Amino acid sequence: MKNRITAAALGMAAILAAGSTAFAADNGKGETDQAETQKAMSATVTLTDAIGKAEAAVGGKAFDATISDEKADNAWEIELAQSDGSVKTVMVDIKSGKVDQNASDENETEANDQGEEAEDGEMAD
Q: What is the pLDDT confidence band of residue 21, given thresholds at 50, 70 and 90?
């Protein structure tokens, strides 16, 4: 019985150690999860407010929102579904609340497509 409890405690400790290492790991897009969390915590414009500003600026309904993972961006990245079925991505500054309607995931989408091709064993362009 004592061995089972010790084994369970060791297993839990290993899971927690792996989880904390993963939290600080690079997410592959520029910043670590920890840096993104710190950026979000320093925002004076809340995510809720940013979504409201984005919807007011371009219309549609927000369906995805996150802190930008690019080191140079200090903005909430918000994707909005439009009535015509398209998706509009905007950036809302975390300090001023200014909405940038010219945000685009086009480069990110192209990079993801190339990465998927390379994963399948094909050469990426």
A: very low
Q: What is the DSSP letter of 32?
A: B
Number of H helices, E strands in the chain: 4, 4
CA distances from 39 to 26, 27, 33, 105 (A): 15, 15, 10, 20
Token pair for 125? 């362009």
**SS3 (DSSP) at 43:** coil
**35 within 8 A of 26, measured Cβ to Cβ:** no
Quick: pLDDT tens for 26-82.
Answer: 445 556 788 899 999 999 999 999 999 999 999 999 999 999 888 788 999 999 999
Read off the amino acid at residue 29.
K
Closest of 58, 91, 62, 87 to residue 76, by C-alpha: 91
